[in-house]
Amino acid sequence: EVKLPDDLTTYRVLALAVGEDDRAGTGTTEVVVAKPLLALPAAPRLARVGDAFTAGVIVHAQHASDVTVHLDASGLALDEPEQRVSLDANTPRAVRFALRAETPGTATLRFTVRGGGEEDKLQHQLPVLLPVVVETVAVSGEVSGSPSDRREEALLTPGADVRPDVGGLEITLASTALAGFQESLKQ
Fold first, then answer.
1. pLDDT value at position 134?
2. pTM of this prediction?
3. Cβ contacts of 166 within 8 Å, gap of 6 or more
4. What is the C-alpha separation between 89 and 116, in angstroms, rounded?
5. What pLDDT score was predicted for residue 3?
């Protein structure tokens, strides 16, 4: 008897034998280590705030059975958290859920698959990024040095498409037109 590691794979066993009368022989066989019910992730690499997408699991079963797949999604909006599907023996099946990314951060998807007296659980982390565009505007001008000489610039207030929870306004004044080149000069 041999205790195999907790890997889900196929092992190849090779036996060599040599007898006292110089006879020799070999034999090989394969030992498959598998779970009766297995869930593998089927999710995108990342999502962006505002995305509507599907994520789920690929369910493998050694025996035909009805399975229930439950999803607990934190950090994402989910309409229907549970699905019931029928599986044929040794025929994988994708079970997908409709999700929406509404806030930035790291979302956690926890899948629980039950059926045929077996259970498998899976947790998957999904980064949810904020799709922001940096806008840079430069204005230049000059004033002489007299107290009555002045220059005015107007700023427009942000429109409805600007997120109130991200970004800001940065104003830099300089006595030279080279004010915006600090980072380039550092490089």
1. 75
2. 0.67
3. 130, 132
4. 11
5. 82
Q: From residue 122, how far is each of 5, 6, 57 by CA, in Å? A: 20, 16, 9
More confident residue, 165 or 52: 52
Going by C-alpha positions, the residue among 131, 122, 72, 79 that lies closest to residue 100 is 79
At residue 8, the 3 state secondary structure works out as coil
| Tokens describing residue 82 | 């549970």
> Amino acid identity of 12?
R
Q: How would residue 71 be classed by pLDDT, with cut points 50, 70 and 90?
A: very high
List the structure tokens of 150. Answer: 């002045």
User: Rounded distance, CA 115 to CA 138, Å?
Assistant: 63
Q: 43, 181, 46, 56: which is closest to 113 by C-alpha? A: 56
Helix or strand (DSSP H, E) at 184: helix 182-186
- When comparing pLDDT for 1 and 53, which is higher? 53
